[in-house]
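Residues pack. One example:


***
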Amino acid sequence: MSAGAAVTEQRPVAVATAKRTGRGSAGRGRWRDHIVTTVVAFIIAVYGVALVQGSQLMSDLVPADGGMSGLIVFITALVFLALGAYSAAVVTVNSFSTIVAGRVRQIAQYRLLGATARSLRGKLALEGVVAGVVGTIVGLVAGTAAYAIVIDRLVAVGDLPPMDYVLFSGRTIVPAFIVIATVAIAAWVGTRPVGRVSPVQALSQSVEAPLDLSRTPIAQRVVTIVALAGGGLLLVGGSAIGAVSPFGLPIAFFGGVASFSGIVIGARMFVPALLSAVGRAMGGGVAARLAASNAVRSPRAATRGTIGMIVGVTLTVMFVVAIAITRVVTLDYAASLGEGNDPTFIAMTNMMLDVLTWITVALVGVSAIIGATGMVANLSLGVLQRQRELGLLRAVGATGGQVRASIALEAVITSIVAIGAGAVFGIGYGWAGAQSTLGALVGETGGLVPLVVPWWLVAIIAAAAVLLAAITALAPAIRATRVTPIQALAVE
């Protein structure tokens, strides 16, 4: 029988299956698949409201300058919001890729019935946009209400003067627009794999993505190499110029953006190897072996679950290291001018940089939280998509505790790799940023700023990330053992 005849013969089966999934699991699970999009949009919306209302508070408290202070804070807030949106975009793109991987057979069935890849891609992206809009609206309402409560409490305890505060600024529309636009673009980009699903895959019992999708395309390799090479040259050039002038910062900035984009695009070329190495180091127990094999079984899925957290940790560590270097260089430079022995100056400088450090960690740390959310969400979707496999593991003798432990260890392995890689990248980019800005102030050391890493703070960030991953992995781990072997065999 020819392939065409087989497809024709199976069309009635595909029609029945497509109708059944449209009413049943897909209808119920469609919005469940987009929980990560809604949660990420909610977090960024609340974050945006906090930043924008912070600038509005500055305008309320300093009206004499015509709102200039508030405008400066607002522009700075947009920079941090852009960083958060970047992390959200990475997580959302990976979330949609995971959704497509879990709907391969269903998409193929609709393709078999005549639906075009573009129409299916548009419908899936629209689902994500709707989920993002819901998260954004809820986030705006929650953020605005929280701001009003905080202002009321601060006035009540005397930390703020009693006056008329603007509790909802028109500027709030800006983060809302940024969040929705980010979700829309990320949804469209993340649904690209829909075009790679062929109708003949409707005949397969597998829900896994085609094997060729696990290989890094040549074009992606080329883009990665070009971005890394070009960005690396700009980063080195900006750092070199920074030894004589602070104008090296813009060059280093674009170099950092380009090179880190190359890292994100080419993450599939190194993340699976790191996951495999960490997995082997976890030991030889049943749960550890299961976790290690699951972490690297699908390189594409493994990378999707890791890269978002790598982005968040990189940004957080980068700012922490840059501020730590700034502290040392500033105090040394002041000492060279004869002001470094003033206890008042030293105390004020340390206090200002301490405050700046914690504010920056709080602001940029949102990216790490988003990354962790995306990692756990991808893990949860993976558990749902592996119901048959998990049930069969129970059938061949694996205990519920072993299955739960393997899921939790899988999250720990992913978080360890993300933290390790993010810390390395963050330290490098933090030093390059400080060097391109402050190198001219340390002429006595050849124009090179010292590498200063506050390991205690990096350790806190790492511990918090691992703890968050382990705790949030409990829900998917428990869900994994709810599938009995009989139910697993019934999963299509």
Residues 1-28, 207-213 have pLDDT under 50 and may be disordered. The chain has two domains: 1-198, 266-492.
